[in-house]
Amino acid sequence: MSADIALNENKTKPPKKEKYYVQTIRRVLKNKLAVFGIIIIFIQVILAIFAPLLVNYGPYVQDLSQTKLGIGAEGHFLGTDNYGRDMWSRLVYGARISLIVGLAAVGIGLIGGIALGLISGYYKKLDGIIMRIVDLLFAFPGILLAMLIIAMLGTSLVNVVIAISIWSIPGCARIVRGSVLSVKKQEYILAMKSVGASDIRIIFKHILPNCTAPIIVFATMRMATAILSTAALSFLGLGAQPPTPEWGAMIAAGQDFMWDAPHMSIIPGIAIMLTVFAFNVVGDGLRDALDPNMNLDM
Amino acid sequence: MKNNKVLFLASFLLIIIVFVAGCSEESSGGDAESNTTQEITYASTSDVVGLSPIDTNDSVSSNATFQIYETLFIKDPETMEIQPLLAESYETPDDNTWEIKLKEDITFHDGTPFNAEAVKYTFEQIKDPERAAPRASLLAPIDTIEVKDEYTVVLKTKEPYGPMLSALSHTNAAIVSPTADKEGDINKEPVGTGPFTFVEWAEGAHVTLEKNEDYWREPAQLDKVTFKVVPESSTAISMLETGEVQFLDALPSDQLPRIESLNDVEVQKSEGTRVSYLGFNMEKEPFNELEFRQAIAYGVNQEAYVEQLNGLGIFNESIIGPKVFGYNEEASEATYSYDKEKAEQMIEENGYSGQSITLLAANRDNYMKMAEIVQSQLTEIGLDVQIETMEWGTFLDTTRKGNYEMTFLGWSNSTADGSELLYPNLHTDNINASNYSRYNNEEFDKLVEESRMSVDQDYRKEKLHEANLMAIEDAPWIVMEHGMVTAAYHTSVEGLIVDPTGSWSLYNVSRK
After folding, report:
1. Which segments cross the bilayer (chain A) (predicted)?
2. Which of A195, B257, B323, B339 is most open to solvent, judged by the fewest CB atoms within 10 Å of its CB?
């Protein structure tokens, strides 16, 4: 029954916000896979923040006399790459890059997507044109769009962020628009309008807070895509430039050494896989927890 | 929902299992090939551009045309001495005249007789501006080509042309059948005098040749030769391992340990004429300042780089390499050898500390490797170096226009003559063409011209040495390495010799 209450509270102006979030968190924590994901993300965040304290060597420090050491080598427990750089150090600094790029790309994408979604959902006149532009963006396969943008702007991590955020906009805009359309029809919005509240006030104080659930889910899932796309673009040589310890670039660099030093590609490969997996299951968990209908079915 | 997750986990595990299994898969076979048919398959990473020596100049095409066509002179693959091939002998009555006697009773694959007319026709085609032969520059100094009699051709130059014999032994100066060229497209259906005749070219897949039974010397031992296109070098190595391919060349240094570990595969390595260098754009600041170039020259440790090449590189800082005409050992000592402290001091004293530099690198394994190592070394001496990578075509375009600060390039010297290195790469005439460093030094130009315009080989050698020393001191280039030429082939292949320019003939090759 608690779900029912949450549902009602959600639909009306929620007076006890805290309780709602506490409940959501509790439901997420019931999902074991999501907990696993949260732990992995937490570890990654810790690694990224405290990177300099966790490594003995800088990620760029070459030692050409100690190249391609395997896992478990003395002083380098994850081995070294073909320039004798410490793999652990590069992995940890790579986590930093992945998270920063992911957050930045998703953040910018969300700002653009939410703005377009709100305008398009609220103002019927603009809906058609904005959604057609979104459709146009959707028509491109995502990675192709990103490659096109990078081809125009040049290769660098900053441009990867721009490319991925542009690519995130249409998905976000459509989701937000959908929520706005359903929230807009609620009686309390009509009530706000009838008492003469301004559009801005209605949009930001009443509609947007009620769209947060799908946005949070979208953002979490999008992190996974963004990290994967950054790695993919760097793998293709369009993203991070050497010697940046970006995971995708590290896999590409290790390709030639799959025979004598497979760890050079496998370690960053597993890191990407775990991170993407973690964000996906957390996103899944959040969706289950935030979507009351789903909850009632269970 | 639950089911979905189980499925997700299961597929996740499956991916890991497949991946791990894929990694630990042991090589199988290696001696699958036990037949002794006289056939050989060679794999290259790209397709031939064409099969006409006049109209191509890339090494893949040259490898194929070298088996079909022949040149007037040829370099001995081991000693690099120039010997007559289609020519019988030559005389130089004066500095500007080359009278070449040709061998008699040779016919092209299509039955056309080989004679002075054929030579005249070929050379005129190479020089014809309308045909725009990529290596027209080889014969550019030749003014007139006269047929003195059926088997004597006289080449006249305006100025003495020292590297004449080197030019005439270049694969792109091979003699083609005039009939075939006039009536058809020798770029698609080549006709030469060589030990192998053309059978088929399936674009993007392979070129097939077979033995020329009517060859003017003893016919070749191989019956059939296939040039196969295998874009991935690691795939080509696997094919060598399974016996699908018997011969590879230009082996990537990173793959060398794997190739050497294969059973029944022999690896040939010898010093080559290729030089790879770190080049400055001499028209940009601060790269136009000698102190800055010197500081970088002191700060780059080429030896450490060469050590990473698994033996596929030679450390020698002379611009003219040991296998190139004009090399003198003195030059290897006249350089700015690695001295980190001195480099740091020069950076400090001249106020270059923290100078930010963009190091442009083509997206190729060897150049990327140089870039990463040099970037790290220059960071250590107090410079701020960023690497920018580019796809090969874009890279060549960008560097030719001079839109870069510092980059890596190489020069495969297919004539093995120092003039053919210094003139195209560092002479003022070739700024905006092949002089990527935009080096401009009148004194140097004069020395290079002198080396080209003399037929006295000792004098030429001396001038080249002087020019070499001057360029080393001026440091428009910092030599990274002198290349090795390499080949890997099945143990059943006999008689294969790769010469220092990287070319090879299958004439003496057989399988046992």
Report:
1. 33-55, 97-121, 133-151, 157-176, 215-238, 266-286
2. A195
Sorting pLDDT into bands at 50, 70 and 90, what band is B108?
very high
pLDDT higher than threshold 70 for residue A129: yes
What number is the ipTM of this complex? 0.72
Q: Can you tell me the distance from the alpha carbon of B188 to that of B422, in angstroms, rounded to the nearest whole number? A: 34
Q: Which residue has the tokens 């080393």?
A: B472
| The domains spanning B69-179 and B272-483 adopt the same CATH topology | no
The string of DSSP codes covering B380-420 is: HTT-EEEEEEE-HHHHHHHHHTT--SEEEEEE--TT-BTHH
Annotated domain spans of chain B: 69-179, 272-483
* Partner-chain residue, chosen from B363, B372, B387, that has the shortest CB–CB distance to A83: B372
Q: pLDDT-based confidence at B132, cuts 50/70/90?
A: confident
Identify whether A284 is part of a domain.
Answer: yes
Structural domain that includes position A183? 23-52+84-295
Structure tokens at B21: 């299994």
Residue type, B130: E
pLDDT in tens, B384-399: 999 988 877 788 888 8
Kindly state the tokens that stand for B183. Answer: 């009536």
User: Locate tokens 């030089």: which residue?
Assistant: B275
The count of domains in chain A is: 1
> Where do runs of H (alpha helix) occur along B263-418?
290-299, 302-307, 330-333, 340-349, 365-380, 392-400
Q: Under a CB-based contact definition with an 8 Å cutoff, are residues B201 and B51 in contact? A: yes
Residue A203 domain-assigned (yes or no) = yes
- Closest Cα in chain B, distance from residue A285 (Å): 11
- What class does CATH assign to B272-483? alpha beta
Contacts of A83 in chain B (CB under 8 A): 308, 372-373, 376
Contact B353, B382 (CB under 8 A): yes
Task: Name the A residues in 101-120 with CB < 8 Å from any B CB.
Answer: none
The CA–CA distances, whole Å, from B411 to A282, B255, B415, B466, B483 equal 54, 22, 11, 20, 10
Q: Do A288 and B388 touch (CB under 8 A)?
A: no
Q: Does A242 touch chain B (CB under 8 A)?
A: yes
- A13 occurs within a structural domain: no
pLDDT at position A127 is 92
Could you give the C-alpha distances from A24 to A186, A211, A278, A295, in angstroms and in order?
A: 23, 15, 18, 11
**What pLDDT does residue B26 have?**
41
Crossing angle of helices A263-290/A212-235, nearest 10°? 170
**Which has the closest alpha carbon to A63: A72, A54, A53, A73?**
A73
Interval A168-197: pLDDT, tens:
999 999 999 999 999 988 898 889 889 988
Q: How far is B304 from chain A (nearest CA, A)?
A: 7
How confident is the model over B471-511, as pLDDT tens digits?
999 999 999 999 999 999 999 999 999 988 888 999 999 99
Residue of A nearest to B258 (CA): A259
Nearest CB neighbour to A260, from listed B5, B258, B375: B258
Cβ distance of B376 and A241 shorter than 8 Å:
no
Backbone angles phi, psi at B194, to 5 degrees: -70, 175
**Minimum Cα–Cα distance from B302: chain A residue:** A64
Give the residue on B whose Cα is nearest the Cα of A265: B23
Q: Does the structure show a pLDDT above 90 at A73? A: no
- Distance separating alpha carbons of residues B372 and B261, to the nearest angstrom: 27
CATH number, span B69-179: 3.90.76.10
CA distance A241 to chain B (A): 7
Q: Does A257 touch chain B (CB under 8 A)?
A: yes
CATH number at A203 reads: 1.10.3720.10
How many A×B Cβ pairs under 8 Å?
63
Is there a domain that residue A192 lies in?
yes
**Amino acid code (one letter) for B226:** T
Whether the Cβ atoms of residue A118 and residue A203 lie closer than 8 Å to each other: yes
List chain A residues with CB under 8 Å of B363.
237
